[in-house]
């Protein structure tokens, strides 16, 4: 007789109704009809009948039996029957007595399997095993009181699921003594070793008792243990491959979408993925961690729950001290997103009120949507930041984005794979309120210079993005309303003249590119090489005095152990000395920072070594320009705008004189360099409504 027991009474929620395990009582023997019994019954029956019919038949029958019984053959027959009956009864009694075990089978893809294996692990059942299956699926957050994961370092809380170990299938059963009963446990390998069947292993438990309640108790205990000791989400409910339940809300957040990042960051912060089984391993260097499943079920049918949830995570996300930077890849899709710390505007060293001007203008623009709409002007605004490398163009964009709480979408126009189509795809997938950063716009579309250069050198022009392609996408209807575009370039002179020359067809679009002004013209900001004020500023940032942020380093004997100054005045004196030795409009702040890093913590050494550094830089520049014959010059020869861009300092054309002291040489260098930018030092052109012709003239000179 086989018995199927289940679903069990241990279920609390739905999953239990799906949980079944089987156990079998060992089969009893068939009850044999005992001939002897039949005979006796027959005799009794006959005897009772004979009472009714008459006792004379009894005497006759008995004497007949006696006569038959005296026959030796019949005697032997009766003996045989009696003996057989005794043997059969003994066999039945023995069989019944020995059948006191129950067998249960747990399928690997069933919940009960997880409960029991986790519980058995806790009972140290697998301690003897030498071969383990390591599963993150059964993982749990370690709890000091629990013994679920007796692993090294298990006390460490991480966002990642801790693996659990279970003995690999083995032929020899393990023995467990549980509440006074013995159990033998055997794991069976999947029948096939292919991936699909790999999860079809089973766990066989033999309980050496006939009491079925013991087995029920065992499974219930395992289940309670499992849920009490782990923060597991029933895996089947969250399997993204499973069909979404119609009774639950299903929200899908697409990777690359901003909402995805809100939700992802929030879920990671609340350890929501501790029990995930589907980990995507990524080499992305995102501090958001790894992107896991994209779909989640909300256990509610109320839509407000979903919108509240999204609102909450969004608020959390935007409240943090970070700026999200989305990076385009060459296939026309937004790829990685990195989260950068906000840069305080105060850390930007820009002359005058440049940064405040940009910020206020951008704020004004964002607040002026209605004005644009009434005026029938697309609500977009653009800024062209140009200047030598390392002068702070990108830093300015990041600082402004932080102030405005906007995300940055960066399109490196010079990147491989960038063409008109991919550019269009990218721009059509930017949100309306964001900062679009077009880096190295001079590399976007090959100018006639590039074409000519490419022809001369039998090579391809630099980029596959065309001027009209760029202008089209910037001007298209799909371009977001409320978007701020920053374009950066190190070589304003490399921009195609068609882009900046007024009176051409492109001029109209040029306005779109550089700015969509409220009234007129474009907004250009030139980033110049470091002025005296900036050189002093960067020095002061590096060698802040020993104050609250920079606590005094004094040892027990009262001796100062740091070379940092004690007061602002002292730092200012060093800074002035330092700036006096560095030619203005010659080096970018990034270059100066690079030098100061080599003198970290020692302002005196920084001042003392700077002259030597300047000389080295100058000689380096001279040797480069003499070796290359100046690429800049060679371009000028076949260029129709041969002069250097305004503010772009040429390599210093200073011949060091023999025997000249370093300081004199520096002075000469300073003079030479200053020639190029003289008169504009410290005077950044944050020009709203700058005269187009001025720029055109510059480019066409
Ligand atoms: N004006 C500045 N104020 C503060 N830091 C600056 C400034 N200019 C440059 N730096 C520092 O120099 C480094 C490079 O700056 P950034 O990337 O902003 O320059 P960039 O002009 O965008 O250069 P590129 O044209 O090469 O992209 C950064 O570490 C930045 O902090």
From TrEMBL:
Lipid bilayer topology: Single-pass membrane protein
A GO term for molecular function: ATP binding
Localization per Swiss-Prot or TrEMBL: Mitochondrion inner membrane
PROSITE patterns membership: AAA (PS00674)
Main location: mitochondrion
Positions of the UniProt region annotated as Disordered: 622-701
Reactions catalysed: ATP + H2O = ADP + phosphate + H(+)
Location of the AAA+ ATPase domain: 379-515
GO cellular component: mitochondrial inner membrane
Keywords: ATP-binding, Hydrolase, Membrane, Mitochondrion, Mitochondrion inner membrane, Nucleotide-binding, Transmembrane, Transmembrane helix
Family: Belongs to the AAA ATPase family. BCS1 subfamily.
Name of the protein in its database record: AAA+ ATPase domain-containing protein
Organism expressing this protein natively: Roridomyces roridus
UniProt lineage: Eukaryota, Fungi, Dikarya, Basidiomycota, Agaricomycotina
